[in-house]
Amino acid sequence: MSRPPHCEATMKVYEIQLQDRIKFRKRAEIESVNAALKKSFQVEHTIHRFLLIYHTNSIHIQTFILNFVEIRNLIYMKALIFAAGFGTRLKPVTDSIPKALVPINGKPLLEYVILKMKDAGINEIIINVHHFPDQIVEFLRRKNNFNLHIEISDERDLLLDTGGGIKKAAHFFNDDKPFLIHNVDILSNVDLNEIYQQHLLDPDRLVSLVVSYRDTFRYLLFDEKNRLKGWVNTKTGKTKPMDKMDFSGYHKYAFAGIQVVSPAIFDLMKDTKNVFPIMDFYLQHCSKAKIVGYIPDKLRILDAGTIGALKKADDFIQVVQINY
C-alpha cells in the first residue's frame, strides 16, 4: 500500500514528532481517545489517513490511536470565511439577500465553502457578517451549524474590510497555529489540506496566497522564489507599494481568494486602524515578511461574485465535481 499523495507533505512535518511520542498507555486512556474519535467524524477521517500510512510502516495502529489527543493538537485547523461584503457585483440579486446566500444549483455559496472546509477536517469556523447578517445567522441555525463549531464575527455596525475583518477575529485564533481564510464567493478544486500542509513546512512564512494565471488587469507581483513583491494595475500603470515600480522582471498572478495565515500577523496589526484592506497590508510588509504565492496543480477556480459568473457556476460545479 502506498502513501496517499496528499499526506506526503504532512508526514515530513509530523513523522519524527510522532515516532518520539508513540507508546502504550492505560486501557482507560484508549477508551477516552476512542470516544473523542467518535465525537468528530472529520477529525477521525483525518486521523484515518495517518493510520493508513503508519500501518504500512509496521507501527501498531492501537499504539498510534493512543496518541490521538497529541496528534489532534498538531493537525487541527481553524478558518475564517469572508462573508460580510455587500455583493455589489451581484446586484440586483443581493438587494434582498447577502452574497453568502446566493444560490448555485440550489445551494448557497456559504454552504459550498463550509462543506469544503468540513471535508478538509476543519471543525471551527468564524464567519464575518454585515450585509443582511440575520439571514446568515438564521441559515446557520436551520443547518445546525453543519455540526461544526461556528461563530459569527459581527460587523453589522461597521464594515471592517478584509484586514479589519481578520484583526477583529483575532480572539478566535488563540491557539498559536496558522489558520485558513476563504472568500465566500470562491468555488474551486483547491485541496485545503494541501495548501495548509505546505504552509507548515516553512516556519518563517507569514502568509500563503493561492494565486492563478487568470486574465485580469490587476496583478500581484512575485519574484523567482514566488515571494510577494508588489502589485500592478496594467491598465493605469499604477504600482504598489512604490510608485512607478519596474515590474517587467516579476511574475504576474491573480489572487484566488484562499490563503493560509500565521498568527504572527496579529502582532503586525497592533498599530493598524480598525478598517483596512488586507492586500494593502501585505504589500506594506512584503519587503520584510515572507508572503508567498502558491499555484495548485490543475487549478480550477471560479469567482462566483458577478452576475456573469453565476450563469457559469452550475456548469462549473458539475465539471469540477463539487458535490459535498
Record keyword descriptors for this entry.
324 residues; Spore Coat Polysaccharide Biosynthesis Protein SpsA, Chain A; 2 domains; ten-stranded mixed beta sheet; two-stranded antiparallel sheet; 21% strand; globular
Structural account:
The chain is an alpha/beta fold and 324 residues long. The chain folds into two domains: 5-75, no CATH class; 78-320, Spore Coat Polysaccharide Biosynthesis Protein SpsA, Chain A (Alpha-Beta Complex), CATH 3.90.550. The chain is 37% helix and 21% strand. The longest helix has 16 residues, at 41-56. The protein is globular and about 50 Å long.
> If classified by CATH, what would the architecture of the largest domain be?
Alpha-Beta Complex
Q: State the distance separating the first and last CA atoms.
A: 27 Å
Instruction: Give the DSSP E fraction (strand runs of 2 or more residues).
Output: 15-25%
Our count of domains comes out at 2
User: Rough shape?
Assistant: globular
Alpha-beta classification:
alpha/beta
Q: How many H/I helical runs? A: 12
Low-confidence stretches: 1-27, 36-46, 52-74
CATH fold annotation of the largest domain: Spore Coat Polysaccharide Biosynthesis Protein SpsA, Chain A
Portion of residues within helices: 25-40%
Strand count, sense and closure of the main sheet?
10 strands, mixed
What's the total number of strands?
Answer: 14
Overall mean pLDDT stands at 83
Radius of gyration: 21 Å
SSE arrangement, N to C: HHHHHEEEHEHEHEEHEEEEEHHEEH
CATH superfamily of the largest domain: Spore Coat Polysaccharide Biosynthesis Protein SpsA, Chain A
CATH class of the largest domain, named Alpha Beta
